[in-house]
């Protein structure tokens, strides 16, 4: 059975070229010009890889990839973009893309990169939908948090910050890492925004009488851990 590829590209000429070339290479192709339709197809599953344009009119490529990853879908994704800046590629990879191809591109290069991501070993374990640290649990699908029997109400930014810390539990996370990973800043805003949000998050996570999970590492940053 041939590999199934999802192509999300709003430029009709590029989409037609890609679909034709991929089919000639032996792939089964589903193509759409809509980011929202692409998201529906991707979450529906059944694809071996995705080729997604960075700039789409309704739901941009970065948002599409982030939404797919938030839904627990780990299908390899290659982003296409006319923007070649380093920051643009970094943003794409951090959003969950597996590779990046800059337009104009040769099909030979795209095909080689597609073959490379398809060669990567498939995950042998179930897709991660929950993260735990001690009795603290984060549900990545429902976007909810609990500590023991206690439900924790988090604002979207607080959830992002907690997820970032939990994915790196046991390791020191610097303020710069949080600014880049949660706020997408590439500069120091010279404010105490990190300290303020950490303080609010700590009050929600570490209730009175509970073991502290969020720790300040003096001169370095923060660490989330069940034990020091």
Automatic annotation (TrEMBL):
Gene3D superfamilies: 3.40.50.2300, 6.10.250.690, Winged helix-like DNA-binding domain superfamily/Winged helix DNA-binding domain. One of its GO terms (cellular component) is cytosol. InterPro entries: CheY-like_superfamily, OmpR/PhoB-type_DNA-bd, Sig_transdc_resp-reg_receiver, WalR-like, WH-like_DNA-bd_sf. Residues 4-118 form the Response regulatory domain. SMART domains: REC, Trans_reg_C. It holds the Pfam family Trans_reg_C. One of its GO terms (molecular function) is transcription cis-regulatory region binding. GO terms for biological process: regulation of DNA-templated transcription. Keywords: DNA-binding, Phosphoprotein, Transcription, Transcription regulation, Two-component regulatory system. This is Two-component system OmpR family response regulator. Residues 128-226 form the OmpR/PhoB-type domain. The modification 4-aspartylphosphate is found at residue 53. Residues 128-226 bind DNA. It comes from the Bacteria.
